[in-house]
Amino acid sequence: MNTPTSPPGAERTDGSSVQIGALVPLTRPGWVEAGQHLLAGLELAVREINDAGGILGRPLELVVRDTAADPQRAAVAVDELTRLGVAALAGEYHSVVARAAAARADALGVPFLCSSAVLDALTEQPTEWVARLSPPQSRGWQVYADFLLGAGHSRIAVAAQPSVYWASGTRILRDYLAERGGTVIELDMSALTLPAVCDELVDNRATALLLLVGHPEPAVPIVKSVRRDQRLAEVMIGAPAGQPEFAEWATLLGDDSAAIPFLRYLPKRLGPLGARVETALRERLGEAPSFVAFEGYDTVAVLADVLRSHGADRARTVESWPRVAVEGTRGRIRFSRTPGISVWQWAGTPVQVVDRDPAEPDRFRILHAG
Q: Apex CA 35: angle with CA 226 and CA 10, to 5°?
């Protein structure tokens, strides 16, 4: 398998640097824009740490591998990075890919700090080797369900593709809403045409349609189809997985990109560190940074703090998860054991429901927080 490597000069094997393996989706079918933002955050934090003296006088370096949203490719990358001697693994955006990486990290005994993936069952069994910054899907999607109910939606259709991640999201929504008088209608996008989706929404009297599908296909065509059906003028479209977060969404959909609520993991206001990092990320990316870029920065900030305290010893890094107390861009990061979650979890991740303002699609409106 041809696995893309780091830029020239980014990998050294002479022991002069402390290396972190970075798993990032940088090519299709991975969500490339998310991968670029994640990598920008990782790289910015590495640069700042090295400007401040590195890790105990040694430079910190990223060894980047493109997962392309392929679980098998990610597992192979974990094997390779482990052989290269990385002190820890970081990153990954796609939940099913992060799950494969976490399983290999656990089996090989290498620390993995997952930046962005939210699937509750990141590993099959409890593990000491994996920690996570993003909130578990059950927490974030229950916040989203509270938003739906508060907005008056109790008959909710989900347009879903076959996937562990989408199935998990559907189950969370169905169970949570059922206890509160809501109904979830499942639309199988592997079997329905776009006109059939619109007909199903009408027939089931759904007031909201949630996109539990890939981006840009078929999410963008679904939005266009529903927006153009006059029978569905009052139907709210939502995207809890965050498809509208990135600029490509607005580019592809124009005015149709607005008023589609999604989950974002940022506080209402950034503190001084977050504001400074936002400015630096904006300069690096040439556009407003997504929450994924902040997740990347915070990942390296946490690992650097652990490595400064304990060196590059993998076992000592893992032992330090419960003692982490790092000021991140979105709040103070501490890890704990959360019921039902198999990895060390940051329980304080901020969660928002936001959308793009119809009057100004490049501006986000905070609709709900949890």
A: 165
Whole-model pTM: value is: 0.94
> Which range is least confidently modeled, 1-10, 60-69, 120-129?
1-10
Quick check: helix, strand or coil at residue 122?
A: coil
* Alpha helices, DSSP H, located in 4-94: 32-51, 71-84
In whole angstroms, give the CA distance from residue 246 to residue 255: 15
Average pLDDT over residues 185-198: 98
pLDDT classification of 15: cutoffs 50, 70, 90: low
Position 14 pLDDT exceeds 70:
no
The answer to whether 241 touches 151, Cβ cutoff 8 Å, is: no
- Measure Cα distances from 19 to 15, 35, 226, 278, 316 in Å: 9, 19, 48, 25, 16
* Torsion angle defined by CA atoms of residues 49, 54, 56 and 59, in that order, rounded to the nearest 10 degrees: 140
Q: Say what the pLDDT of residue 310 is.
A: 85
Strands 352-357 and 335-337: unpaired
Cis peptide before 135 (omega within 30 of 0): no
Element (H or E) spanning 251, and its range? helix 247-253
Cα angle value 310/347/322 (rounded, 5°):
25
Q: Which amino acid is at 82?
A: T
What residue type is 198 in one-letter code? C
Nearest Cα residue to 201 out of 172, 238, 256, 252? 238
